[in-house]
Amino acid sequence: MLSPPTAPSPDCLTRRATLLGAVGLLALPVSALAAAPLPQPVEVWPDAAPVPGGIARLSLGPAAARPVAHGRVGDGDVPLLVLGDAMEWKALVGIPLAAVPGPASISVQLEGGGLRQIAYTVAPKRYREQRLKVAPGTVDLSAEDTARYERERAHLEPVMATFSEPLPQLPLRMRVPAPGRRSSSFGLRRMFNGRPRNPHSGMDIAAATGTPVLAPLPGRVIDTGDYFFNGNTVWLDHGGGLLGMLCHLSAIDVKPGDWLKTGERLGAVGATGRVTGPHLHWGVMLNRVMVDPALFLAA
Ligand code: ZN
């Protein structure tokens, strides 16, 4: 819904650079290791990548109960996913693709009232750009299609604002929802006839029509429908403002209210909506921001 899909691109995924750094530490002599910062535990997903389209992982320190934290998205405050235990709570903050690199902050409600600000820095990341020339007149939607798109956007507003009890534990390690070649086109900036369109905000997985699509994490179905850009789509609530969106399906096997375990079938790959061929578009939303699904996958 948030942006028109693209066909899968041939690039391979490159990620987990931070873990490679951690592995490098193991080659150091013991004396050097003692002075070096400890690597992040390997079992932590998602990867922290405080860049536009990425995720900041911020420590909130110890507290008896789960703290309530908010981040700023657009003009509004949105609740954040907070995970951990009484020893240490962590906020996972989805950073918009449109975020300007530089200082940012979240606010945490104090037990006695009042707010504490926690600062972090959004690092720059330059995504690839794709320039396409198409016949004039094919880029703009008709008045009828624009009206449909606006209706769908209004319908999805409360769906995307879903915020329920978080899943009980880290790691939030996701299963790839369909087998197939994964594109690294998240964040791709597209220009049609020199005019910028929304960047690509998910992962495309190349697979034949009919290939089963599985839940990447436990979740509740919060919406199904046939949408103008995204075709047949299932929205999943993974808790705490972490949502999944699976698009262009040829079949939907679930309905709103259904609970799915990781790996349970929810539909099948297809080519519905505005697409050039069958593939799965998988979007991951955190605090109402589309973030890179690759951050939730093992290398
Ligand atoms: Zn896509």
What can you tell me about this protein's structure?
- Strands 9, 12, 14, 15, 16, 18, 20 and 21 form an 8-stranded antiparallel β-sheet that branches. A 4-stranded antiparallel β-sheet has the order 3-2-6-7, with no helix packed on it.
- It has a domain of 168 residues: Glucose Permease (Domain IIA).
- The N terminus is likely disordered.
- It is 11% helix and 35% strand.
- It is mostly beta strands and 299 residues long.
- The site of zinc ion (ZN) has 6 residues, from loops.
- The site of zinc ion has 6 residues, from loops.
**Gross morphology:** globular
- Radius of gyration from CA coordinates: 20 Å
CATH superfamily label of one domain? Glucose Permease (Domain IIA)
CATH-defined fold name of one domain: Glucose Permease (Domain IIA)
Structural class: mainly beta
Task: Report the mean per-residue pLDDT as an integer.
Answer: 85
Helix content: 10-25%
Q: So how many helices? A: 3
For the record, the CATH architecture of one domain stands as: Distorted Sandwich
The poorly predicted ranges are 1-35
Biggest sheet record: 8 strands, antiparallel
- The fraction of residues in strands falls at 35-45%
Number of strands: 21
Order of helices and strands: HHEEEEEEEEHEEEEEEEEEEEEE
Q: Spell out which ligands are present.
A: zinc ion
**What is the CATH top level name of one domain?**
Mainly Beta
Distance between the termini: 28 Å
